[in-house]
Amino acid sequence: MTVNTTTWQPAPPSSNNGSWTRFNSLVEAELRDFVDKNRAQAGRISRSFPLMWDHIGSALIGGKRLRPRMVHLAYTAFDGGDPGRCATMAAAFELLHTALVVHDDAIDRDFVRRGQPTIGAHYRDHASDQGLSTPDAEHLGHSASIIAGDLLLAGALRLASRAAAGLPQADELTATVHDAVFASAAGELEDVLFSASTDRPDLQDVLEMESMKTAGYSFEAPLKAGALLAGAGLDQADALAAIGRRIGVAYQIVDDVLGTFGEPGTTGKSAESDLREGKRTVLTAFAAEADGFDDLLAAFRRGEVEADEVRSALKDCGADARAQDLARSLLDEGLRESRRLPLHSAARAELEAVCMHVLTRGN
User: Which Pfam families is this protein grouped with (predicted)?
Assistant: First the structure.
């Protein structure tokens, strides 16, 4: 079984802000320490367990560190003064993100993420080398992914508790992280059930699912946690979180578009998995208004038509353009709401940069 032995490298800074660069190095140190300590403990428990932590460490390398960036943005916007504590909370959200991604790959039966083999792929390949059948090897790979995701999730909650310890707002902080996990699980369940249901969810159903599944833990909760950690009042933290919810839904809408029309070499994920799994997205919600689209999508899932035919149908009915317009509208709403908050100019500029990134990523 091969292991990615790439050395830890700090993620590229998301802006030219020297404060973010310094802060990001603290987050990377927290993540590295998390993996190293758990790998050492794993070696005292079983011979096979340290290898799991090698794979977890590899899964944490790279990425844009978007959730830590949200924590940092809110923390600095309200003049927080303990960057070490903030970095611990930011690392907690990065662990949470990786946990949910690892679980999502198992749910979607994907073995590639960011253009690299997933944790499950390594275990699948090892099982295949040992002579297991393809279905059994894939089942083993997905099982290992579930275990890895559970470990990451437990680590995220532990780091979040450590970051909040001793603060007057500790209960509200830990509740914020817990609520993000809770909502994400609800959103993931809705996503799975939508795929299996013969009833077609409407656009509002899809948007609510995406708000729970992605927006909450990626934008809403990190922004709220960063604000609370800095000492902001609950009203201000909730207001910033509401802005994050809009940005997060827009992020997921763009992700839906990239998941269907993006180049796998750029996006690092299959351009057919959403269609193959029958994912109900904003794209399919718009396209369902066109006669015959649902039948065409069902035919694709049965292997009777090619993915390009489904993509053409989506474009012909304007689903991709309408999705982009909706994402842009949500981001505009978020920025308008942000002007009501007492954010200093640097934080406001950073928020605008995030919105631009959400809208243009993949271009």
Answer: polyprenyl_synt
